[in-house]
Amino acid sequence: MRLVRPGKMLPMLLVVLTGFFCGCNRSEDEIKVYRLVKPSGESEPIEKDAIASTNAPVKSTLERVPTQTGDVPVPTNWEPRPLSEMRQASFLAKGENGAVADISFVKLGPAAGNLLDNVNRWLGQLGQPPVTPEKLTGMIQKLPTSRGEVDVVDLNGKAEDGDASKDGRIIGAIASDEGTSFFKMRGNAALVGAEKENFLRWITALRTGAGNESTAKPQLVAPTSDKQHIKWEVPPDWSPGPASAMRYASFAAANDKVDISVVTFPGDGGDDLGNINRWRQQLGLPPADPKTSNIVPLKTNETTFSTIDITGGNARTVAAWTRKDGRAWFFKLTGPSNGVEKEKPNFVKFVQSVRF
User: Fold this and answer.
1) 225-352: what CATH class?
2) I want to staple 331 with a disulfide (CB 3.0 to 4.6 A). Which of 82, 135, 320, 344 is the partner?
3) 307: which strand partners?
């Protein structure tokens, strides 16, 4: 065995002890911060809600338009939200009693899924079964813009996690030109309904390339005399309402507190129970029992309308509808309960005067 003499160990011991005590003299509060930087090639997670599944790579179809909505006015209750990898525009509309609706605009490539796939995906988000291509035809509403028509659907269903203040209705719009544009508003059913007109105006303004409020308003198609499919007699106390992209005609009564609308769709316009439940949801009511939906027939000289009278809180809706020559026609009287009660006789006469 080789022995180390004590005289030679002393310098080594001094070096070790010196290092030890120097380390102990450092402040215990001294902290070094290291920042991890994400490689430039990585991106935020893709929002799965944007499109239906497709075999095409999502990143290859992504087209960022970060300032596309900058000059388009939005309502004051639309709160801007942070953009993401998928969203070129993002807002949160706020209503009463905590009601909210999420609004987004996403632009992808042409391989982003067809209309039926996306509509069925949205229906699935609302807990509803998928529809067939034939039924989808009757659900689509056309929104005219300067860059062509946009397909719009208005869907109702169950609120995710049972929170009706944040979910229960989706209005989705898809335009297929120079890629695929998705416009979507999802949230509280009543708030989505209240913001629908603003949402459609916003879509039209984006596709018009509007730079100020005067040009940002949508090019809405109002019915003209040479395009009228039906005739009627309007009560003298009703005044013409503003034109709308989704309405065939619009009127106001009771100092504009009561709204009367006429809407038409190709096909059957959806099943009766589904439409009734949508109107009930707009009034904050649960779905109707199929056995007690309270549909009442209203006969006229040419056809028979189905009618229903729904009251929810201080709001009320009276609706009448019929299907004629491959189209569905919906007439609605909506407003405060007392105003609707006063105008209901006029509304019934108005529906009875309809001539196809």
Assistant:
1) alpha beta
2) 320
3) 296, 320
